[in-house]
Write a structure and sequence with these properties.
With 349 residues, the chain is α/β, with parallel strands linked by helices. It has two domains: 6-239, 3-Layer(aba) Sandwich (Aspartate Aminotransferase, domain 2), CATH 3.40.640.10; 242-347, Aspartate Aminotransferase, domain 1. Helix content is 39%, strand content 17%. The protein is built from ten helices and twelve strands. It has helices spanning 13-28, 45-49, 52-55, 90-113, 139-149, 204-207, 224-239, 242-263, 292-306, 330-347; strands at residues 6-10, 32-36, 67-70, 118-124, 153-157, 184-187, 198-202, 267-273, 276-284, 289-290, 311-313, 319-322. A seven-stranded mixed beta sheet has the order 1-7-6-5-4-2-3, with helices on both faces. Strands 8, 9, 10, 11 and 12 form a five-stranded antiparallel beta sheet that branches. β8 and β9 (276-284) form a beta hairpin. The longest helix is centred in the first third of the chain and has 24 residues, at 90-113. 49% of the residues are buried.
Length: 349
């Protein structure tokens, strides 16, 4: 991320996304934010207010008037969904992405017509808790054009997807090599491999606008232990060639999962990249009705019978999330897919 010259260090993810909102507001002089359906950006008050994953599902923190929710760019379950035979069609995916980015423009126009301004559009580079969603090519690039034309900034949350999760690219927002560059990037989780550390990366002029006459201060941000953890992570990623490894294992995992889909009608969709995958379990492939019960039974059976830890997530709790450590190898893939095959066969008898 050579275009960024300022890195502000924090402790948990929530601090980083809260700080990103402050940066965007101070720089643009606007207040509002756009997020996407099912998004999750943290557990402090402001980031919960940015998280439909929380406020749409019974949280005591409700959606404030300054938060506007755009449709999630999900081509399988979203507003502009594709037919099964179109899910891998580049032309259809591009068209759907355009429709989703136009939805953001509509929100921007509406906000402006009401005398308000959008400071930032927030999105995870790949939506994780919301269902392992891969946005179509050029979606972020088009959204960025709309947002910047209305005086806002693009904030990309790489907390779950950065540091080689998607394969050869260090950052998931670089997935398509389409020239898209965010204005602010937040990062955490794998950054410290379990140690509590996060950061915000941005341009100098944006960082310089923060706080007015009051400087940024964080008691634990940038402490020596946290910095040592981050340096060690980056060293291991480089020395053990984990970007290429993640790419290679992702390709092998995709083949195995698509073969599994051919065998089990309860698998409606397989989506992912690198070591970031989702299995969408359905009661019926035609209607795509989510099968929450099967998803929960599956993760419990895998845990009890094989010691394999997966989770069920998404707005319907029917998506099996596969996000293993980057050292996950071919043997691990075989064991996981075989165990999943056995469990689904047993549960669907």
């Amino acid at each position: 991320m050579s275009e960024f010259r300022k890195f502000l260090q924090c402790s948990p993810r929530s601090e980083a996304n809260d700080l990103a909102l402050r940066l965007a507001r101070d720089y643009t002089k606007h207040k509002d934010a756009i997020v996407i359906e099912h998004a999750y950006h943290g557990h402090v008050t402001t980031t919960m207010e940015l998280s439909p994953y929380k406020f749409d599902h019974g949280s005591t923190v409700s959606q404030p008037e300054w938060v506007h929710v755009a449709p999630c760019p999900d081509v399988y379950r979203g507003k502009h969904r594709l037919a099964d035979e179109e899910l891998l069609n580049e032309e259809k995916l591009y068209s759907a992405g355009k429709q989703y980015s136009d939805d953001v423009k509509t929100i921007l126009d509406g906000v402006e017509s009401n005398g308000r301004g959008v400071a930032a559009y927030f999105a995870e580079a790949l939506q994780s808790c919301g269902g392992q969603v891969i946005p179509p090519k050029d979606y972020f690039k088009d959204v960025a054009s709309h947002v910047r034309n209305h005086g806002g900034l693009m904030v990309i949350d790489e907390v779950q997807t950065g540091f080689g999760r998607i394969g050869r690219k260090y950052w998931a927002h670089q997935l398509y090599d389409d020239g898209f560059i965010p204005d602010i990037v937040t990062m955490g989780k794998p950054m410290g491999n379990g140690f509590p550390v996060s950061a915000v990366a941005t341009r100098k002029e944006i960082a310089d606008a923060l706080g007015g006459e009051v400087g940024y201060f964080n008691t634990y941000g940038g402490n020596p232990v946290a910095c040592a953890a981050v340096i060690s992570v980056m060293k291991v990623v480089k020395e053990e060639n984990l970007l290429e490894h993640s790419q290679s294992m992702g390709e092998k995992l995709e083949i195995s999962l698509r073969n599994l889909q051919k065998k089990h009608d309860c698998i409606g969709d397989i989506r992912g990249v690198g070591l970031f995958w989702g299995i969408d379990l359905v009661k019926d492939r035609v209607t795509r009705e989510p099968d929450q019960k099967l998803a929960i039974q599956t993760i419990l059976a895998l845990r009890k019978g094989s010691g394999i830890l997966l989770n069920a997530d998404g707005p319907h709790t029917n998506i099996l999330k596969i996000k293993p450590p980057l050292c996950f190898n071919e043997q691990n893939i075989m064991e996981t897919v075989e165990a999943l095959d056995q469990v689904l066969t047993l549960l669907k008898r």
